[in-house]
Design goal:
455 residues, alpha/beta, six-stranded parallel beta sheet, five-stranded mixed β-barrel, 15 helices
């Protein structure tokens, strides 16, 4: 799409604030998609002439990039925005903006806009390309409220200020077509739009040249990626060929679209990590149908069996919701049994929270909060029992870890993940951070592994 208006506004802002030493601060809630959007907002601001502030108190512009997936997201956002009123009073030139998924919901956005008249900018997820234009209006003391209902466009060419390190994200698609009954994402991110494969590969080449060795390809459902006749397994093969790339990850995969071709690509491509995040959400076919997940537990277990048959030492992580409307004790027990049967290496567990505008929020038989908490605690207990059992098989294993940092709890230890996402702690010098080293696993450490470096 055409970005001339965006860059024209950036140029005007830069000329206007040059030498003023203005600083920005972005507070991000939610998923990796939001984190990457914040990197784009930061990139635009730095092109405009702003520099990053270490705290809200030091900033001349504060942005809240919001999420609306969890029940208390609105309370959290409203509370944190409210605290900036005093900052605004102390610094009259301070600009405060609120954006992201929650602001794509017009009712929540209008409520915030009315409640906090000191907020200068409110805009939704589809306004990223227009952010410099909106900022220019705010600098001219015009209050901004922009929410676009269309699904948005595939935006190429926006500046990006990536968090320094060795691992980063590359979006391959936007939006979602699945409309799971509990999920607000299709309403705030729009329908699926896939980027062109050559644009993705070029971006991967660029970030690798900047020193990022590990790339995670992002999409609400990467398995449904399709552009110019290229599906997701073919895209993986194209990205796998990028020179200098060390590791390639992706998330998230929807079970209904996980193909044999993708499993084969994971098994065959040397840079693709042997880990898949495969959200199951429930172990009950009845609840899966109410969730509109479009697969059965038999189908899901068939995928687990194929993954483990084709990919050596593959590890599977998942998302699980307990307390979905109408979930019986029997349904919940089926979820616990699934967890025992699959043996996940990690699971992100949630008590169901209704999101206004979704079908599940209007369903009968909502589960009381205390019962949801009880089930969540029980499920986490089951996971605590199964996770160590899955780790014991790695004692004696030799593999490569990408060193991510140093754990200073007690004796300092380097930590990093094997290709399949298992965390390993080892002794070693800090200058190994960001590099891949060969290790041998000697034992278990909490829910992770420990070992030593093989020279």
């Amino acid at each position: 799409m055409e970005l001339n208006g965006c860059y024209d506004a950036i140029k005007r802002i830069h000329e206007r604030i040059d030498a003023m030493n203005l600083k920005y601060y972005i507070e991000t809630y939610g998923c990796q998609m939001n984190e990457h959007d914040s990197e784009k907002l930061a990139g635009i601001l730095e092109e405009c002439g702003y520099t990053a502030a270490q705290s809200k108190e030091d900033a001349d512009l504060i942005l809240f990039n919001t999420c609306c997936v969890r029940e208390h997201a609105e309370l959290r956002t409203f509370g944190n925005v409210g605290f900036t009123k005093e900052l605004k009073q102390n610094n009259p030139r301070l600009i405060i903006g609120v954006c992201g998924c929650m602001m794509q919901q017009k009712e929540a956005a209008q409520k915030l806009y009315r409640r906090f008249p000191f907020v200068d900018m409110v805009f939704g997820t589809h306004e990223l390309k227009n952010f410099p234009i909106l900022l220019e209006r705010a600098l001219n003391e015009q209050r901004v409220f922009e929410i676009t209902d269309i699904d948005g466009e595939v935006i190429e060419g926006l500046p990006v200020k990536r968090v320094p390190g060795f691992s980063t994200f590359v979006n391959i698609m936007y939006g979602c077509n699945n409309f799971c009954t509990y999920c607000i994402v299709p309403y705030v991110r729009g329908r699926e739009r896939s980027r062109r494969p050559e644009d993705i590969v070029n971006e991967v080449r660029k970030v690798v040249s900047e020193g990022f060795g590990e790339i995670t390809l992002l999409g609400q459902n990467v398995n449904s990626y399709c552009s110019d006749g290229v599906n997701f397994p073919k895209l993986l093969k194209m990205v796998n060929e990028v020179e200098g790339l060390k590791r390639l990850r992706f998330m998230t995969s929807h079970p209904k679209d996980l193909s044999d071709e993708l499993i084969d690509a994971m098994a065959e491509l040397d840079k693709v990590c042997k880990h898949i995040h495969l959200p199951v959400q429930s172990g009950s076919d009845r609840i899966l149908q109410l969730m509109n997940r479009k697969y059965t537990i038999e189908h899901y277990m068939g995928l687990v069996d194929k993954l483990r048959a084709k990919i050596e030492n593959v590890e599977i992580t998942t998302d699980i919701i307990v307390g979905f409307p109408g979930e019986t004790e029997e349904d919940f027990e089926e979820t616990c049994e699934l967890v025992r049967k699959v043996g996940y290496s990690n699971a992100y567990t949630f008590a169901y929270s209704p999101r206004q505008g979704t079908k599940a929020a209007a369903m009968q038989d909502q589960i009381p909060l205390e019962e949801k908490k009880r089930r969540l605690n029980l499920l986490n207990s089951v996971l605590a029992e199964t996770l160590p059992a899955g780790n014991e098989k790695y004692i004696g294993h030799i593999g490569d870890i990408l060193v991510e940092g140093v754990d200073h709890r007690g004796k300092p230890l380097l930590f990093g993940k094997l290709s399949n996402f298992k965390m390993v702690y080892v002794e070693g010098p800090e200058d190994l951070i960001g590099s891949i080293v060969k290790v041998k696993v000697d034992g278990l450490r909490f829910n992770s592994l420990f070992g030593h470096i093989i020279h």
